[in-house]
Amino acid sequence: MSRPDIAVVGSGPAGCVIAWHLATAGADVVLVDDGRRPWAPVGQQLSSVALRVLRTMGVAGRLAAITAPVAEARSAWADTTLVHRPALFNPYGPPLAVSRSTFDGVLQDAARDAGARMLRAHIKAVPGPGGWRLAVRAPQPRTAHRPALPPASSPPDAGGPIPVLIDATGAARAISRGRLRWVCADRLRCSAWRLPPRHPEPFCWTLVEADAPGWWYSAPEPGARKLTVIHARKHPTRTIGSGPPQPPPHTAARLGTRRLPRPGTERVADIGSADPPWADRLLAVGDAAMALDPLSASGLRHALELAGPAATAAIALLDDDTRPAAAYAELVRTAYTRHLGKRQLLHAAAALAETKPPARP
User: Fold this and answer.
1) Using CA atoms, how far apart are residues 48 and 57, in angstroms rounded to an integer?
2) Taking 70 as the threshold, does the pLDDT of residue 147 lie above it?
C-alpha cells in the first residue's frame, strides 16, 4: 500500500465521517479498522440536527431501514412523577434510535465510495521524523465484539512516514492516550442488558429514571423486539447486597420485573476531553477528543458535526498551519463546557432522588 497523506485509526462514526470529508477534499486517506469492539455501542440516538451531515454525505436515504423515530422521551428525576416530552414539538423532527453495527457499515461504505482506502489490520503507531510509522500487528483472536481480521498485505507507510495521524479509536484513545492532555470530569460504571418489554410497544419511546444509586435508561432497539437497558452510576459505587441492581418503578414496570439477570456487558466510562485535542501531526476526534455522559445521547451528534472542522484542521496540519486546529479545539472545548453545564443541572435534580431510599419491590 502506498503512503497516504493522512491515516485515520478507528472506523466508527467519527473515523468514517472525517475520512469521508478528507477524501472528498482530495486528500489521500486510509481508514484503519482494527476490529476492536471492547464495548458494543448500545442504546444510541441520532439527533435530527445531525441528519444534515448525513444528507451531505448522501446516506440519509438509507437510514429508514436501520433506525426508528423516537416519538416520545419520558423521564423521572427528582421524584417518581413521569414527565412526557413528545417529539411532535421538536422543530427539527424526532431523534432516531439507531442500530450502531448497521449504521457504522453505512458510514464505512460512504467513506470508501468517496475515495478513502480501507485497511483491516491491528496497528501500532510510532512517531518519528516526518510523521508516523504504522507497524502492523498480528491479528488478535475473535471475541464477541471483535471479529477476526485477515492479515494486512503491507503497512500503509510503505512509502515513508505518514504526515498526519487521526485517533478515532473512541474511549480507548489508543493513539492519543499519553500524548494529548486528558481532563476527566467524572467516571461512571455502566451496565447494559438487552431485555424484552413486558408488553408490545406501539411506538418508540425512551425512558430515563433516577434512582439511588445512579440512573437508568431504556429504549427499543430498531428492528428487534427488545429494549436496551443501561444502568449508570458513579465509579466506584458502594452497593449493598449482591447480584444485579433492581430497576426503579417505571423501568421495572416497562420490563415487567424487578429481578434482572447478570448484565450482558459492563464498562467504566470516563467523562472528559482532550485539551487541546491535537498536537504536532496528531488529531483526536469523536470520543477520543470528547467523551460525554452516555445518558445524554449526544456523543454521536457531536462526533458527526465536529468531523468537518477536524478534517479542515488535519489538512492544514499537512502544511504546518495550526490555526484550523486551534479553531477545532475551541469548538470541542465549547461543546464540552455546554455538556457539563446541562449535566450539572440534571445531576442536581437526580441528587434529590439520591436522598430517598432505594425503591422496594
Assistant:
1) 15
2) no
Q: What is the pLDDT of residue 327?
A: 98
Alpha-carbon separation of residue 33 from 98, 144, 254 (angstroms): 21, 16, 37
Alpha carbon distances (Å) from 105 to 40, 102, 140, 315: 14, 5, 21, 25
DSSP E strands in the chain: the ranges are: 6-9, 29-33, 44-46, 67-69, 72-76, 83-86, 96-98, 117-120, 122-128, 131-137, 164-167, 182-195, 205-210, 215-220, 227-234, 265-274, 278-279, 282-284, 290-291
Contact (Cβ atoms closer than 8 angstroms) between residue 272 and residue 279: no
The length of the chain, given as a count of residues: 361
List the alpha helices (DSSP H) in 210-306. Answer: 249-255, 299-305
- 10 Å CB burial of residue 91 (0-12, 13-18, 19+) is exposed
The answer to whether the pTM exceeds 0.90 is no
Look at residues 329, 311, 319 and name the one whose alpha carbon lies nearest to residue 57: 311
The whole-angstrom separation of Cα 94 and Cα 238 is 37
Give the alpha-carbon dihedral of 170, 175, 179, 185, to 10 degrees: 10
Give the closest residue to 296 by CA, choosing from 225, 215, 240: 215
CB of 12 closer than 8 Å to CB of 40: no
